[in-house]
Design a protein that fits this description.
about 450 residues, alpha+beta, Rossmann fold, Pnp Oxidase, Chain A, nine-stranded mixed sheet, 11 helices, 28 strands
């Protein structure tokens, strides 16, 4: 969209003008004005931002603006207000601090007790007739501390740091349990015993955790991936679906965790688009369970992965493959070694040793957007003397290409390459029916089976 043009839209019953793209600036007009008063600013900022000017007409203007942000899926915005619209802007920032990144008022005199209640940077500007000076001042404020990085790329870079996975819980001021999955956990101090976690300002429970007297950090074990996924969701029945008990300080503790810390609130710190919750440890416990890891968008089972490391480091050839489902059907590929044969997606049968990166490359070439989950089997194939490592996961097929989809009740067993593959798929099909998968390590006849959920 050109910087000199704007569009008129309606969302949730609110008419608004907008232009440009990028970080949002929400312009709030005074009581005797309409959105059109901001046309010069829409033109001025369209080249670098997404200026948005609604008609504020509801008696409860804060609720109207919150609904507008929700309807437009805007987690947080910069807010600029003029005249008595400044009171609305301040009320919005106070009621929903996670939604306001920066706040500027023009020609509005706040009360002395207002500013300390706000978590975001605030600038109170005097009224000005000169549009250029107003635009210049706003540009200076909006450019301050703005990230010049692509947020997705920055998130990917941060994800290179392998972390554990925690579930942070609280009883809340109303006594109702709340919880969310987080990997932003850090030990801070031994004397006094302090730790911290971070929670996004756009999170639904940020206000509950900010006001709560304390919280608990549950470090998940490698068998609790499903629990992590549960608490990362928006399901309202998380605590009905999970096994938990109250901790010594009253916060929920997740059964089966590798360790837990029950904390009193020590400090709440504003930090960009997150808040930092620092806790004073009141009680803790730990076990010898292996913790669940996380890096680059994937879960890592540290103890179980060791079997794969041992297999990959052996002198034998290593085959790395995956048992993938698409629309509840098994994904197979033509076997290049047999005219009518089928194989699982795998690398390393011929040529160099297989690896996880080679497997991802194969899946991409075959038109699959795959998510690899836990290891499913690590074994030595006695027929080929190969070390075999297989994951389980799901895939979206962007292009059918060479893929063959088989119903689990009608797998073409006779077209599979060997008994080791057939044995592994029989176990997968049986465990799939009851929804409880385990990992197998050994050879195709004898080994150890360990639960992962």
């Amino acid at each position: 969209m050109a910087s000199s043009s704007h569009a008129q839209s309606v969302a949730g019953g609110t008419r608004f003008l907008e232009a440009g793209s990028g970080e949002v600036i929400l312009f709030i007009h005074g009581s005797a004005e309409t959105a059109e008063v901001w046309l010069p600013q829409l033109a001025a900022f369209a080249a670098s931002h997404r200026p948005l000017a609604p008609d504020v007409t509801a008696a409860d203007a804060v609720a109207q603006l919150r609904r507008l942000l929700d309807d437009l899926a805007l987690a947080s915005v910069n807010v600029v207000a003029q005249g008595d619209g400044g009171a609305i802007a301040l009320a919005l920032a106070a009621a929903h601090p996670q939604r306001v990144r920066r706040l500027v008022t023009i020609g509005f005199e706040p009360g002395a007790a207002v500013a300390p209640r706000l978590l975001c940077p605030v600038l109170f500007m005097p009224a000005a007739d000169d549009e250029r000076s107003v635009t210049a001042a706003l540009s200076a404020v909006l450019s301050e501390r703005l990230s010049r990085f692509d947020n997705r790329e920055l998130r990917t870079a941060f994800g290179s740091f392998m972390t554990g996975v925690t579930i942070v819980t609280t009883a809340g001021v109303d006594g109702q349990p709340r919880g969310f999955t987080a990997n932003s956990f850090t030990s801070v101090s031994l004397e006094p015993p302090l730790l911290l976690i971070c929670i996004g300002k756009a999170a639904a429970s940020v206000d509950v955790f900010s006001r709560a007297e304390g919280f608990a950090v549950n470090i998940l074990s490698e068998a609790q991936k499903d629990t992590s996924v549960l608490f990362a969701s928006k399901r309202p029945d998380k605590f009905e679906a999970a096994n938990w008990r109250p901790g010594p300080f009253g916060n929920p503790l997740i059964e089966g965790s590798a360790a837990w810390f029950d904390c009193a609130r020590y400090q709440v710190i504003d930090a960009g688009d997150h808040i930092i919750l620092m806790g004073h440890v009141q009680a803790f416990s730990y076990s010898d369970a292996n913790p669940l890891g996380y890096a680059r968008g994937h879960y890592i089972t540290l103890g179980l992965e060791q079997a794969a490391v041992n297999a990959a480091s052996s002198a034998s050839r290593t085959v790395v493959g995956a048992i993938l489902e698409s629309d509840n059907r098994l994904i197979l590929l033509p076997d290049p070694a047999r005219p009518d044969g089928l194989v699982l997606p795998e690398v390393g049968r011929s040529g160099a040793h297989g690896s996880a990166s080679q497997l991802h490359d194969l899946l991409t070439r075959e038109g699959m957007d795959a998510t690899l989950g836990f290891l499913f089997a690590v074994f030595e194939n006695p027929e080929s003397r190969e070390q075999c490592i297989y994951y389980r996961g799901e895939a979206l097929l962007h292009a059918r290409g060479r893929t063959v989809l088989a119903d689990f009740e009608d797998i073409p067993w006779d077209r599979l390459p060997d008994e080791a593959t057939r044995s592994m798929l029989r176990r997968y099909a049986a465990e799939r029916k009851i929804g409880r998968f385990k990992i197998y390590s050994g050879d195709h006849r004898q080994g150890l089976v360990k639960a992962v959920d």
